[in-house]
Amino acid sequence: MNDNKFKAVFFDAEFTLFCEKVKRSQIYLDAAAEYSSTDLSIDFVEAELSRAFSTTPDSINGQVKFSRAWWMSYNANVFTALDLSPKDASKASKTVTAYFSKAAAYMVYPEVVEVLKTLSSAGIQIGIIANWSEDLPVLTKRLKLEKLLDFIIPSAELRTEKPNRAIFDRALFRCGVAAESAIHVGADFERDISGALTAGMHALLVDRDKNIECGLHEGVKVINNLYDVLDICELTAHDT
Fold first, then answer.
1. For a designed S-S bond to 95, which of 31, 40, 162, 197 qualifies (C-beta 3.0 to 4.6 A apart)?
2. Which residues touch 87 (CB under 8 Å, ≥6 apart)?
3. Euclidean distance between CA atoms 18 and 98, whole angstroms
């Protein structure tokens, strides 16, 4: 029986549970280099990734942002700007899509498995809420995290993204717990923290690199690793 005041803990995916091993702009640069003789700088590619994210419509032919189809359009936007032909842009897009679907592209943070097992052993429900494509459950399985989770909600599947309250409400519904009994943990203030607080939940902001200025977000607890989640739930890594 779970006597803890918290009955559920939800996590964002990237920069909370895992991160990319190689800088994203480098992956796009390498893919473009296969089809273009243009000498591109990493800074230029970085700028184009940011530009494409801002200019690619949130919905394309009924396909919502972060969906598999949306990412293909985003990639085409990027590679066209990197001076690839439409045919080669399509090939490069498939290359990066395949790369980011593999477990080898990511590193699971060292404490994640231990923290998830401890929460689960204490009877606390665990889920992922992420702005991600429909492929997140498959990726989570490849990262060997799937069996440690009760559910996974990618935004593309629900057709709404954080910080929209609807995605947090769906997670609460899946768990059957009240908002005040749930914590959401994420690395983006607007999407994760503001969204969770609006839904009436508790929220923890992850700052693994300790870049957030002390007191910047008044009233919001900032943590440097997920062991702090156990402390807040009054658990230790040795609890069963």
1. 31
2. none
3. 18
From CA 205, how far away is CA 184, in angstroms rounded?
A: 9
CA distance 140 to 149: 9
Rounded-to-integer distance, Cα 43 and Cα 45, Å: 5
For residue 102, the Cα-to-chain-centroid distance in whole angstroms is 15
Q: Which residue(s) pair with 59 in the sheet?
A: 64
User: What are 183's strand-pairing partners?
Assistant: 9, 202
Residues 6+ apart with CB under 8 A from 133: 66, 67, 68, 70, 71, 154, 156
Residue 22: HSE in the Cβ half-sphere, 13 Å Cα cutoff: 14
Amino acid sitting at position 145: L
Q: Which band of pLDDT confidence, cut at 50, 70 and 90, is reported for residue 240? A: very low
Residues 145-172 pLDDT 10s: 999 999 999 999 999 999 999 999 999 9
Mean pLDDT of the chain: 93
